[in-house]
Amino acid sequence: MRLSRLRPLAATFLLCTVISAQAAPPQGGKPLSGFTPARAGQQRALEARFDALLKRESLREWMRRLSARPHHVGSAYDKDNAEFIAGLFRSWGYDAQIETFDVLFPTPKTRVLELTAPEYFSYAARLAEPALKEDATSGQAAEQLPVYNAYSIDGDVTGQLVYVNYGVPRDYEELERRGIDVKGKIVLARYGGSWRGIKPKVAAEHGAVGCLIYSDPRDDGYFQGDVYPKGAYRNEWGAQRGSVADMPLFPGDPLTPGVGAVKGAKRLDLKSAPTLTKIPVMPISYGDAQPLLRALGGAVAPEAWRGALPVTYHLGPGPATVHLKLEFNWDTKTIYDVIARLKGGERADEWVVRGNHHDAWVNGANDPVSGLVALLEEARAVGELAKSGWRPKRTIIYCAWDGEEPGLLGSTEWAETHAEELQRHAVLYVNSDTNGRGFLGVGGSHTLEKFVNEVARDVTDPEKKITVWERERASRILEGSADERKEAREREDLRISALGSGSDYTPFLQHLGVASLNIGFGGEDNGGSYHSVYDSFDHYTRFGDPNFDYGVALAQVGGRLVLRFAEADTLPLNFGNFADTVARYVKEVTKLAEDTRNEIAERNRMLSEGTYKAVYDPTETYVLPKEETLPAAAPDLAPLQRALAKLQESAKNYQAAFDSQDVQARLTSSTDVQARLDQILMNFERSMTREAGLPRRPWFKHQVYAPGFYTGYGVKTLPGVREAVEQHNWAEAAEQVAVVSATLERAAAEIDRATALLQGK
């Protein structure tokens, strides 16, 4: 529940109480991380000039232009938009180029979904989104991609239907307890609970021959509010396109893992591409899903599985039987990345990279144009500063990525192509994607947590007229758990989230080890236009951010992140916040290991005593699980605890050295020491990568942050250990404890190097 859903009077009173102590942005004399006191004042003056250059009218006109036609990968308007964006950057003084890559991008040529039994329930799915008179671009059918899932395999299958709720592993565990087997069946899953690509992946692992994914109105429709065009939410025939490639293995072009998809690149054979689905899969609207659900028999679904359609939700299997036929054009398409450089001065070989994608599934006003236009206005203002005579200390690179929607294609292929350069030069990657009214959300490397908190304290919320930091803090105090409320009141900095996947930061952070942030506003812009023909200029300007106030706010946040990193005397990283966060992760995996083993031991005991079934409704039939062999004890996490203690000590020593007057004087007087410190700080994130990567997915090299193997977008922290425990793979858990411990020790050693440099050793 977001703040806007609280009772208005109570919410207003609480908000005023929370913010009264700090209602105005900090004044010009406050210190800035990475800057000497004298330079901090100059930086704030530069940012004031930057703010004065921002124009909300630009955002509106660019959105109208960029979302005027469908612009998916391979479309004429996708290329046209890239050329338009490159032209803007050149007009602002950037050295802008378009880099192209040739990638696998399938489009549908046959889509058939039929309910064939029982005969009296027969139904042919519409699989189409109608044009609306209230939405000017919704009728561009000749240019629109139809509703489909990219990287589904071809297939022609018929089978009984089984309803699998969200289609995540725990849902199949519940079906197994009830004696329901999906082998040889077609499953029907609702969107939510995980990234969409996990649903066909898990279905195939359980023997299903096909997968359908629909948007239930409880999660994404009239249960949430009025549907489009009256309100913002998904209507009966709106459907969510999207990629179902197995991106937790690797993102990017499915045929060129680990290398750029340039001309002459070695490519996998289509049949051996590991990220393609194993079964055919297709998304449908809830208008098309309702007849299928109505025809299902079998047990009534558990209460938590029931959506908001006017039917009784049954599990099946059958008697509903469906025929699904899919065929695709398996074409190679060219994608167009716009790369715009503003060369730096004394540290031009250090790169600050900022990106947002430009491709969409259809018109894409919200996803991605809402974030892109904020980036463009940010870049225009930075260009104006440069034209007035200012020059950044470090090189700034703005990127408009193509092919994000099918699987982070543009960013991944560019990062793989330029991997060595980026590992030598990139000091930061800042990403944005969608943007709307509401609260500032930030995820990223926790060495950047204190830095981004400083930025958030310096940007005013356009509606509440307090800082965006204070508004987010108020939200956590009003809506958070007891621990979250306590932290928001007492901790100096608000915690930022860890990054899994789902946008273009992934290749930078998790493959190359570049410190990264993902930023955007939202929470009061809810609606159901996502990946539909109704993600349009008309929808966004009614329900997203009608006055582009939060587009300007995003430009202010992104601009400060870029300008401060570009201008800082030393890179503004903080190890204390990082060590504090890792301590939480170590505590979590320790508890997870103990709890998991205890739960299995207790289940084994109940099975041996014959009391296991007593925990379930005696009127239901359940299949008993098998006893599981357990080691004598949970994995020994003592090496992880020792490595954490070393990391915490190193972080403490670094901060003490950095804060000393002698060190500050030395840093102020020596640009050589500043530059040498930058190199160590830049490499800190790299120290948490491992060339061998994670088990069974070597592309993901970061040992602290990764998307979950069965969550997709959702993050797994300390993933090697955490996922081994979750999968009850105790031998691998012990191996990964050693790997992660060595990673934390390596990170501590990098901090010690920085401390020694500060102390002149």
Low-confidence stretches: 1-28
What do we call the CATH topology of the largest domain? Aminopeptidase
- Specify the CATH homologous superfamily of the largest domain: Zn peptidases
Strand content: 15-25%
Measured distance between first and last alpha carbons? 53 Å
Give the class-level CATH name of the largest domain.
Alpha Beta
The total count of helices amounts to 24
Quickly give the structural class. Answer: alpha/beta
Radius of gyration: 26 Å
Share of helical residues: 40-55%
**Average pLDDT metric:** 94
Query: From the 3D coordinates, which CATH architecture of the largest domain would you assign?
Result: 3-Layer(aba) Sandwich
The biggest sheet amounts to: 12 strands, mixed
Shape: globular
Give the total of domains: 3
* Count of DSSP strands: 16
Description:
- The protein is of the alpha/beta class and 761 residues long.
- It folds into three domains: 3-103 and 333-567, Aminopeptidase, CATH 3.40.630; 106-332, Glucose Oxidase, domain 1, CATH 3.50.30.30; 575-758, Up-down Bundle (Transcription Elongation Factor S-II, Chain A).
- 40% of the residues lie in helices and 16% in strands.
- The chain contains 24 helices and 16 strands.
- The protein has helices spanning 8-19, 37-53, 56-66, 76-91, 169-177, 198-205, 217-220, 286-294, 365-387, 404-407, 409-417, 419-425, 449-456, 468-479, 482-490, 506-511, 537-543, 549-567, 575-609, 638-659, 661-669, 671-684, 719-726, 730-758; strands at 95-117, 123-124, 149-150, 155-163, 186-190, 210-214, 242-243, 281-284, 321-342, 347-357, 394-401, 426-432, 438-444, 516-523, 705-707, 715-717.
- The strands form three sheets. Strands 1, 2, 4, 5, 6, 8, 9, 10, 11, 12, 13 and 14 form a twelve-stranded mixed beta sheet that branches.
- β10 (347-357), α9 and β11 form a beta-alpha-beta unit.
- It is globular and about 85 Å long.
